Amino acid sequence: MPSLPFKQVDVFCYRPLQGNPLAVIALDHEPEAAWMQAVAAWTNLSETAFLLPPTTTEASYRVRIFTPRRELPFAGHPSVGAAHAALEFARVSAESGRLIQECGAGLLPLTVEPGPDGPIISVRAPTARIQPESWLESQSESQSKPDQPGIADAALRSLLDAALAGLPLAALGPCRIDNGPIWWTVEIADAHALRRHRPDLAAIARLTEATGTVGLAAFADARDDDCDRVVRAWCPADGIPEDPVTGSVNACIGARLLDAGRIGIGNRYIASQGREVGRDGRVIVTAASDGIWVGGGAVTVIDGSLRPR
User: Fold this and answer.
1) Are 40 and 47 in contact (CB under 8 A)?
2) Among 233, 241, 230, 208, which Cα is nearest to 282's?
3) How many CB atoms lie within 10 A of CB 149?
4) Fewest CB atoms within 10 A around its CB: which of 18, 19, 82, 113?
């Protein structure tokens, strides 16, 4: 295999060493999934994106997304970062201001628009499936159905209590949301408490492994001048203690706020994530008539080639 074009892109920011880093590798032919997984484990970033030729004329490009341990059908920061890289690789043109990404979640539209600090790249997240808090009460029933493995209610509540210990909960309690990856989300009553929180990563890993989820995300309304909400996301079972900035999580939270009537169609807000791990990022979340969009900036910090052999 010849040397492959490689970029490392910081996403949801406009300055290097902020936001969430993403490795992007441009390919002309699709390699084996095991090789892509090995590369993702080697980069050891939250995600690694592999740019591929599309399989349909509707798509601008195709991307496969891997964490160090698994492939994801969709993730927000790789979608924004892959689009940024595809533009720099000159694989696509943004003259129309629109792109179509082909990924495991299907065909997803993106927009590229001017912003005060640079281009804003946004992706429409897959439709979120919100499992209401009543799901907690239904889990003990699912144990009697062989095709629906569940966890006893008392055991689940114990796992949640341990994972959320020390956090002051607010109105929107813990629930699972699926928009490609499946996340636990929970609202916190105090943004400052959320920023100071030191999570029990082992407890979070036990919760996510037992419930088939990627991680736990917590959010709080903020009174800061530079953001409307504070977000943190932990994925220790995937080898990611705390994800710096997470597009899919912010899309899940936007969907939940819309479902709860806390925001309306046409509303846009800015979420702050990553400050606690030194990777201060900003995500623009928009509730549109066709779904939840997440977007922000991206900047290339490494530009070179990967020598796989």
Assistant:
1) yes
2) 230
3) 11
4) 113
CATH of residue 104's domain is 3.10.310.10
Q: Which of 287, 170, 179, 163 is nearest to 230 (CA)?
A: 170
Is residue 34 domain-shared with residue 87, that is, in the same domain?
yes
Count up the domains in the chain and report the number.
Answer: 2
Q: How many beta carbons lie within 10 A of that of residue 107, not counting itself?
A: 14
pLDDT 10s digits, 67-114? 999 999 999 999 999 999 999 999 999 989 999 999 999 999 999 999
* Tokens found for residue 33: 């999934």
Same domain, 262 and 143: yes
Structural domain boundaries, residue 155: 129-290
pLDDT digits (tens, 9 = 90+) for 245-295: 999 999 999 999 999 999 999 999 999 999 999 999 999 999 999 999 999
Contact assessment for residue 184 and residue 217, using Cβ atoms and an 8 Å cutoff: yes
Distance CA 89, CA 6 (A): 10
| 252/135 same-domain check | yes
